[in-house]
Design brief:
The protein is mainly β. Helices cover 8% and strands 45% of the residues. The structure holds 2-acetamido-2-deoxy-beta-D-glucopyranose (3 copies). InterPro entries: DM9_repeat (IPR006616). Keywords: Signal.
Length: 354
Amino acid sequence: MYKLIIVLFLLLLCVLTYEYVNTPDYYWREYAFRTIPYDAVEIANDEKYIGQVYVNGGLVPATIYPYLGYAVAELFGKQIVRDHIKILCCPDHSKLYWDYVDFTQSAANGQMKNSILGGFYKDSNYDFNHFIGKLLHQGEWKAGKVIPIEHSRGALVIWNSTDGTPAHFKQFYMLKYNLTVDSPGGSNYYWRDYSFGQVPYDAFEVADDGKYIGQVYVDGGLIPATIYPYLGLAIGELHGKLVIKEHVKIFCSPDHSKLYWDFVDFEKPGSAGQMRNAVLGGFHNDIQNVFIGKVLHEGVWKVGKVLPMENSHKGLLVWNDVDGQSVHVKQFHMLKYNSTIELPENMQKCISLS
Ligand SMILES: *[C@@H]1O[C@H](CO)[C@@H](O)[C@H](O)[C@H]1NC(C)=O
Ligand SMILES: *[C@@H]1O[C@H](CO)[C@@H](O)[C@H](O)[C@H]1NC(C)=O
Ligand SMILES: *[C@@H]1O[C@H](CO)[C@@H](O)[C@H](O)[C@H]1NC(C)=O
């Protein structure tokens, strides 16, 4: 009898442990203004955070503006909330990701998969959960409620900053969580602020040529560029050649052996797999992710932004040094990262020698 009880107890323990291990590890903390928890989830590196507020009978995801002392949510128009705000937190941000979704496409392709519950709304006509989305709108990132795709009104609903009316979007970024995601969780690369002349020890060189990968701020986003430390400038492409002398970031990684330049041909049909392992280089035109590519052009390697396969202008954009015009190529090398890559032995020797 005792044995049976012990066995049952152990079984129960297993079940409980299993449940525990598989619980997504994110949560809502009470928010006190000016005190941002160490594990709070930022909307877009912009000192704004994801909140949850109770307003007009609904629990709604919101944008927290710590420097203004309030949160903004949308439910029957823009709502400014100053009390009883929660803030979304997560100890391991690498498991969170913003997934670009398109609610004009069918629900069948799993666009709601991995999404994070952000609240609910219920009245005599409606009853649905809210999820969390964001969009660059009127010059700033706003996080707000997502009405699920199954619903006829499925959309991201934020607010018009001018008149406070609701603004509905079918294409936006949805916040998601994947407990077992291995990339970019295991991806050990990052952007450092760059001061000209000072190349960080872990910066990743373009091609053994004293040039590095930069990220620059342009109208409509952040894009990859080429850093020329010896010239004290970076060059990128935005409607032609663009020279930048300040606010440049430099791409770095402590383990260069996991990074590789993969030759891709965007004209090859059915080649969506060519985006696999691509390193994110920024975003442009409000919502479009851009990646990092290089091409040997006019006798030198140039790094520029890659518009992904699904974009109608897919390809790498660099510039012409002679006349400053844009150059658009479909065959180039794309920067990729594989956290579990195993290099052939002879290549490992090369790296340890260098
Ligand atoms: C916001 O509201 C103003 C005033 O009604 C309107 O002119 C403008 O087009 C709206 N903007 C957006 C992005 O919806
Ligand atoms: C989570 O990420 C892993 C690794 O990238 C992937 O294999 C898995 O399918 C993802 N799970 C879900 C539920 O999206
Ligand atoms: C990473 O590299 C390993 C070893 O070369 C390979 O088996 C694996 O498929 C690669 N993973 C991805 C996601 O490309």
